[in-house]
Amino acid sequence: MIRAALKSLLGRKVRLLLSTFAIVLGVAFVAGSLVFSDTLSRSFTALFASTVGDVVVQPEGGATVDGAPSTRTVPAALVEELRSLPGAARVDGNVNAFGVYVVTKQNKVVGGFGPPAIAGNWTDAPAGHGLEGLSVTVGRAPQGADEVMLDAVTAEKAGYFVGERVRLITASDQATLNPRLVGIAGFEHGGSLNGATLAIFDTATAQDLFLEGDDAYTDVWVTARPGVSQDELRDRVATVLPQDLEAVTGDDAADDAASELLKAISFLTTFLLIFAGIALVVGAFLIVNTFSILVAQRSRELALLRALGASKRQVTWSVQLEAFVLGVLGSTLGLGLGVLLAIGIRTLFARFGLDLSGQSLVFTPRTVLAAYGVGVLVTMAAAWLPARRTSRIAPVQALRDDVALPESTLTRRLQLGLVLVAAGLGALWVGLFAEVPHGGWWTGGGVLAILLGVSSASPVISRPFLAAARAAYARLFGTIGNLAGQNSLRNPRRTTATASALMIGLTLACTMAIVGDSAKASVDRSVEENFVGDYIVSNVFGGPFSPSIATRMAAVDGVTQVIRQRFQFVERKGDRQGIAATDPATIDGLRLTMLEGSTDDLVDRTVLVKKKFAADEGLDVGDPVTLTMPSGKETYRVAGIMDDNPLVFTPLLTTLRTLTDAGFPAQDNALVIFGDGSVGLQRGLDAVVADLPIVTVKNEAEFAQEQREPIDQFVLIIFALLGLALVIAVLGIVNTLALSVIERTREIGLLRAIGVSRPQLRAMITLESVVISVLGALLGVVLGTGFGIALMYAVRDQGLEVISVPEGQLLVFLGLSLVIGVLAAVFPARRAARLDVLRAIATE
């Protein structure tokens, strides 16, 4: 039986090729995501290990939730005391700052998105355990306020050479710098900053720029003498530290920094794996359909095996053996393609600033196990139902000329489908509307159950459509159209199973189209109803900018008021929480709608909260709110509850001084500009930021467009990833038609014999393909519209109050289904038209 199964598989290589390709694509996505994730992890772990000393002395709360330095520092006087400790080989103070951008000669910013723009002071201190750190590879270290050193990758991208002036933008009081480049820093034996940019000054200059001239450091490295462990040195250092400072080993500091960052970007792997799962589900439909057709075509052969003495189990497992071989082959090819995909993902993210070119790809055993486990299990599970049907073949059927493989009744499929849809609707309701942990899993499970339920019931619910298509074809295309319609009706299971693969991809695409369009419509309404002032000034990268810009803009002719806005992330109940700040003296200009309390009550150490946050947290005016700030745990009083406002991006709003007292730097994130309407006001504002390419001035329409851009980009990425599922669905249509042509070889020969021309035959196959694709598209559009509206209704209290259905986009999807149907039929129709008439008639 094993030999017979393998010979059968080898005898149908072409038929199984497209099914194998579906597994290859799904496994490639899984393997590529895991390889990229492991490479990312290894790269950041290695980077942080080379950027900490043996022991790191730092203030408690020395970094914000985002990892940026706070204003809390280590006094320089402590350095001399630490140098006298036994076991300390040397002590070096570090000054670090974020938001220092390198600008090219063409006024373009190097990096900006993703990895940070870092600045600091130069020291030649070794990293922990003597690991290689940055070293001067060209030129020399900076000396004096007019000199700077860049990392090698940044200098190359910016096109600067030693001796030239470098343009820098900072978020400190001095917004622009133009020092001379005197050196290039890098890792002599390989290594990378993973896309971050680095500008290095001497210590005194760095303290003047980023610590307001204080003789202090953001942290201090203590290097251990030979034979002294990090733990021993840490304990000795801790004995001389004041209460507000802490000592951690370099290993712990590197692990904490790497784990926090990897936790923050872990969504990338999850995001990719979700779409790998979608591709595998769609691929499973293709495999089920392929094996169903192949088993049906081999029913007489399998009956003959039963007549020769093969048991039901042997016949069933012979089909499963074919699926196993197919799964192994697909997984092997998918694993190789996954490595190429990981390289592609790495290249893609490098375009957005996350450059991992210094780290070779990491290929771990879990990737291999996941690839083969997923590929083989999905293939065998998909082939199980067709394999199970083989057990119903009676040996006596081998004696018949026409063997029909037993199928479950359409009534049973309809009942199963209705049960799955009911269960899916229940799970979807729980995930969207009930307060349960892991609501996303409920929602995803509900969507999958509904899709499987509709797929199961589709042979029944789609029959009216197939009958209408046959009638329309007969009227439009005559006898050929009638034949095409009858072929679709002849086996509704096969037709709808093929359409279901396309249905899944288009369902998700339509859902995301509605989510994206509704989100943009909600943004437009919110901006239109709440926009105040004449212009908004912000950082194109979403980061801070120099507070001197607000001062300079206030002096522009025609400006009547400038409102500063600052945003930070803090910790509340173990979770990351955004908080904004503004000046109470100018808060009335924001025209906040207060539901309880008054803007006059906003003073230092109080907060205004948005209505949803207040409802979720059970907060009323006067209640305390505890937040973990760089200064430690702080408790603030609720001064009022406000309605949503597009100019307040976070649920909490406090005063500027509250944030600076908590340890955050005095850096602005947005400005609201009011003017007197005079001609040339915007030109004056633009002139202030002419040499600052990271800062833009926008009117109401431009601000709304800026808010819509991230939504467009996100939806575009979703569509690109769903394209993989649609490709597999198209392959499914091609495969089904190709196998159908093989199955109907004799029928096609007879049609040709009675006068059907090759163009007519190609037209018949094409019309069958169009029926399949349009059916899948209609089901997908209907389900996607329902899912999209339900999802937007569920989040209507989160500021997305407008539900917008992009009818034009949905019509485009339906139009594309026609194109897909025509293109998918090209190969099968060509194959059918080229069949030799006499040989086709003689085929059994």
From TrEMBL:
<keyword id="KW-1003">Cell membrane</keyword>
<feature type="transmembrane region" description="Helical">
    <location>
        <begin position="271"/>
        <end position="296"/>
    </location>
</feature>
<dbReference type="InterPro" id="IPR003838">
    <property type="entry name" value="ABC3_permease_C"/>
</dbReference>
<feature type="transmembrane region" description="Helical">
    <location>
        <begin position="497"/>
        <end position="516"/>
    </location>
</feature>
<dbReference type="GO" id="GO:0005886">
    <property type="term" value="C:plasma membrane"/>
</dbReference>
<feature type="transmembrane region" description="Helical">
    <location>
        <begin position="369"/>
        <end position="387"/>
    </location>
</feature>
<feature type="transmembrane region" description="Helical">
    <location>
        <begin position="714"/>
        <end position="742"/>
    </location>
</feature>
<feature type="transmembrane region" description="Helical">
    <location>
        <begin position="416"/>
        <end position="434"/>
    </location>
</feature>
<dbReference type="GO" id="GO:0022857">
    <property type="term" value="F:transmembrane transporter activity"/>
</dbReference>
<feature type="transmembrane region" description="Helical">
    <location>
        <begin position="810"/>
        <end position="829"/>
    </location>
</feature>
<dbReference type="InterPro" id="IPR050250">
    <property type="entry name" value="Macrolide_Exporter_MacB"/>
</dbReference>
<feature type="transmembrane region" description="Helical">
    <location>
        <begin position="440"/>
        <end position="461"/>
    </location>
</feature>
<feature type="domain" description="MacB-like periplasmic core">
    <location>
        <begin position="495"/>
        <end position="659"/>
    </location>
</feature>
<dbReference type="Pfam" id="PF02687">
    <property type="entry name" value="FtsX"/>
</dbReference>
<dbReference type="InterPro" id="IPR025857">
    <property type="entry name" value="MacB_PCD"/>
</dbReference>
<feature type="domain" description="MacB-like periplasmic core">
    <location>
        <begin position="17"/>
        <end position="239"/>
    </location>
</feature>
<feature type="domain" description="ABC3 transporter permease C-terminal">
    <location>
        <begin position="274"/>
        <end position="395"/>
    </location>
</feature>
<dbReference type="Pfam" id="PF12704">
    <property type="entry name" value="MacB_PCD"/>
</dbReference>
<feature type="domain" description="ABC3 transporter permease C-terminal">
    <location>
        <begin position="720"/>
        <end position="836"/>
    </location>
</feature>
<comment type="similarity">
    <text>Belongs to the ABC-4 integral membrane protein family.</text>
</comment>
<keyword id="KW-0812">Transmembrane</keyword>
<keyword id="KW-0472">Membrane</keyword>
<feature type="transmembrane region" description="Helical">
    <location>
        <begin position="323"/>
        <end position="349"/>
    </location>
</feature>
<protein>
    <submittedName>
        <fullName>ABC transporter permease</fullName>
    </submittedName>
</protein>
<keyword id="KW-1133">Transmembrane helix</keyword>
<feature type="transmembrane region" description="Helical">
    <location>
        <begin position="763"/>
        <end position="790"/>
    </location>
</feature>
